[in-house]
Amino acid sequence: MAASPDVARPASLPRVVAASLIGTTIEWYDYFLYGSAAALVFGHVFFPKADPLTGTLLSFLTYAIGFAARPLGALVFGHFGDRIGRKKLLVLSLLLMGGATTLIGCLPTYDQAGVAAPVMLTGLRLVQGFALGGEWGGAVLLVSEHGDRKRRGFWASWPQGGAPAGNLLAAGVLSLMTAVQSDAAFLSWGWRVPFLLSALLVMVGLWIRLAVDESPLFKAALAAAERRTEPERPPLVVVVRDHWRDVLVAMGARMAENISYYVLTTFVLAYAVTQTHLPKQTALNAVLIGSAVQFALIPAFGALSDRVGRKPVYLVGAVGVGIWAFVFFGMVDTRSFASLVTAVTVGLFFHSMMYAPQAAFFSELFATRTRYSGASIGAQFSSVAAGAPAPLIATALLKDYGSATPIAVYVAIAAVITVVAVLCARETRGTDLEDTGADARVDSVKAATGA
Fold this sequence. Notes:
Elements: H1 13-40, H2 42-46, H3 52-68, H4 70-84, H5 86-104, H6 110-113, H7 116-144, H8 152-160, H9 162-180, H10 183-190, H11 192-209, H12 216-227, H13 235-242, H14 244-275, H15 280-308, H16 310-333, H17 337-363, H18 368-385, H19 390-401, H20 405-424, H21 444-449
């Protein structure tokens, strides 16, 4: 008798986790590199005629545009990921992201090409967003569907570690370049080096990602679908008809998580440099330290969600980040490096409590043949309203009010939305992901009892 697909495979699971983690780290490195450069470089290079704060605002606008492509990536990658497999789409997403990032490092500046330079920058940012829209769902599902229900929160949290690891790598490379170069050299050509480095990282990621197996749950679901005589409905149709409540829960759960993260790691760079006049390297080093701590926290909170449930961990994180937002900017304003590090690290502590259980939580909301579509749509459509405008809104609020308090209120409102969404969700810890039906829904009673 064949083993249940929802039983961990000790030999293959660590390899799958490593491949997902390394792949997501590279993708997030590419994505966060753009965000860090938008805060520190692009205003000078691509929008030199604007005043510094307006230049930063325009840079964050191109940064936000990338989020507009993430829902499209979720739809396209989700559809084909549910039809032909997770692995093939993850390889494609890595190639698209790496190619776009490398080309950004080759772009002419505004002084060299005029308005064509920011136009090309925006186009490549859209490709990045499209690729990332498909990456997240596939990476966390590949791990979730290889693992077992008792430790799914822990194992599925590892691909989530790709976000702080990628941010750590991006901020680290930029910090190194600013440390060894003058400001003039960095703005002239030094900023290009981290983008060009992406080509090498992608080759490493592809070598590792091509070596893993397809999800056993997906293989079983595909085989069952091929035995059915009636045609399958498109995954998107099934998600919209049968899982719309779960999609809304996922979107609401993402609000505080997404908004707080980009305020804590991206906007803080611009705020620390332009508002408190701290050196670029000081701000980057604070994000480096906070990201390193978060990388260690994510699997710990993922494991905690296996013991106490996804909802309790997520709720504490949402409430915590909403309260901490009012402390955060006051600590940054002290211009003390220790206070800046503490502000970022504590904020990322609360963020980790949402981000760590998110992979398992969203995976457990949907059936196998719609899981890639459902999880990706829920996660990426919310990013348009959450992460995309977060640095832009924060910069605009700072410019209009001259104070960070409205930004803290903005984060707190997002926290309230997330708390309401998570309270409306069912607890999914212990859900059996073994589901080979084309459009069957996860049974809520089964999920609640862990049977």
